[in-house]
Amino acid sequence: MKKRMTILALLLAGAVTLGSYGMVQAGQEKREVPVAGVTQTLAQVLKEAGGVQAQTADAVEELQSNAAVARMMEPEMVAEEAWETAEIAENELPQTASEFADIAVAQVNHYVNVRQEPDTESEILGKLYDKSAATVLETTEDGWYRIASGNVNGYVKAEYVVVGDEELARSVGTRLATVTTTTLFVRTEPTTEAKVLTMLPDGDDVVVTDESTEGWAKVSTADGDGYVALDYVTLSTEYIHAESKAEEEARLAREEAERQAAARAAEEARKAREAEAARAAAEQEAARKAAEKQEVKKSGAGSSAGSSSGSSAGSSSGGSAGSGSGSSAGQSAQTASSNGQAVVDYARQFLGNPYVYGGNSLTNGTDCSGFVKGVYAAFGINLPRTSSEQRSVGYAVSLSEIQPGDIVCYSGHVGIYAGNNTLIHASNEKTGITLTSPVTYRSVLAVRRIF
Predict the structure, then answer these.
(1) pLDDT tens, position by position, 246-300
(2) I need a surface site. Which of 76, 114, 137, 258 has the fewest CB within 10 A?
(3) What's the pLDDT at 121?
(4) Calpha distance 129→108 (Å, rounded)
(5) Res. 385 pLDDT band, cuts 50 70 90
(6) Known catalytic residue: 368?
(7) What is the pLDDT of residues 55-77, one digit of tens each?
């Protein structure tokens, strides 16, 4: 068999190479095939292989009956088929799918349940809230998607999510560039010759605002918009994820505890106000009675008594009432004081100190995340070093619920909410540690509460 295949291969090569045509007999049918020059080649092969006439006849007959081989013998058709094959191969190359192709975005009034099985009677594992996103892992035949989102892996009904809509996925997500080098220069223009706007540490991330320039991404920083080279960052999209049943229970318990604490504080403040009012009323009544007694004792010469009465009443009313009011105010302030406010009070003593990139000294120089880390360290809280890592500490609260001491996270920047719509932060080399208002002077990515 091996010899026979060798004969066919060389016969084909000879026919294509010499390109002449002749008549050969196969049974009783004559066919025109290119055979000129083949006989000599075939004879040489037969001599070397030790073949016989019967093998030659069998080989020629098989070659004539194989239409595909006959077509390949024509040089023009060989070239045409090779071109078509290459064209098909090129068209069939696998295309790189968009990173948003398997992203599902919830489009509901409030939330859609994520269930353990694709069945509305199945156990609820969590909730995918409106405009939250998930990765589609599987599509069922009966209108469900198996999804993964945050710590939740389960099924949602397909009618409540939109899959593969890149524009929608981009609109609900935050595009980030994460630094992958020790120190990354953010430049004013998309070229290495441009001025350095600011620097970012390894692992930090900033919001991407434009990706249209090849090799560069435009990003938002505390010092304004600039450009980073794509060779030194990893691009990703951050979404709001589903909330698991356990996470929801923990959140509700925490919120209830905060409501109860707020109610207790309000009740204590009410009682303090009532006690203060009662003390003031008692002091006024005591002063009135003292004045009446003085009037009774007055004699016809009464000037001395009147003077004494006025002095006594004034002293009793003013001095005693003032002392009680001040003491009560101090107690009220002490009651209202929280750990968050204590953080702010501690941070304020460093106002005016310098900003130093990569610094960790609250007195001699620090950057934004170093400032937040240093302040909280004084309260026994060990926070991570970069602004992007600090965006995950504690627990999230909405901007409408922000309180003093909360950590406010921006693109490539972080600070501490100081109350009265003001941020205390290590801003930049020009201003150092300073106060900035309003707290929304830049787009807020997250608010995190530690205490």
Answers:
(1) 999 998 888 888 788 778 877 888 888 899 999 999 999 988 888 888 887 776 5
(2) 76
(3) 96
(4) 8
(5) very high
(6) yes
(7) 544 554 554 555 444 444 455 55
Diameter over CA atoms, the chain? 166
Model pTM score: 0.61
Q: Which of 426, 446, 385 is nearest to 203 (CA)?
A: 385
- Catalytic option among 110, 241, 368, 409: 368
- The Cβ of residue 417 has, within 10 Å, a number of other Cβ atoms equal to 24
Query: Across-strand partners of 226?
Result: 219
Q: What one-character DSSP code corresponds to residue 240?
A: P
Q: Report the share of the chain in percent with pLDDT over 90.
A: 59
Cis peptide before 34 (omega within 30 of 0): no
Based on the number of CB atoms within 10 Å of its own CB, is 141 exposed (0-12), middle (13-18) or buried (19 or more)? exposed
Q: Which is nearest to 125 in space by CA: 157, 107, 151?
A: 151
All residues at 6 or more sequence positions from 171 whose CB lies less than 8 Å from its CB, including other chains? none
Buried-state track 286-320, b at ≥16 Cβ within 10 A, e below 16: ebeebbeebeeeeeeeeeeeeeebeeebeebbeeb
Does residue 110 have an active-site annotation? no
Determine the Cα–Cα distance for residues 275 and 178; give it in Å rounded to an integer: 56
Q: What is the DSSP letter of 202?
A: T
Burial 29-46 (b: 16+ CB within 10 A, else e): eeeebbbeebeebbeebb
Contact 211, 166 (CB under 8 A): no
Angle at 444 between CA 253 and CA 388, to 5 degrees: 80
Specify the DSSP class assigned to residue 241: P
The string of DSSP codes covering 136-168 is EEEE-TTSEEEEEETTEEEEEEGGGEEES-HHH
* CA–CA dist 16, 69 (Å, integer): 11
Tokens at residue 250, please?
Answer: 């923990």
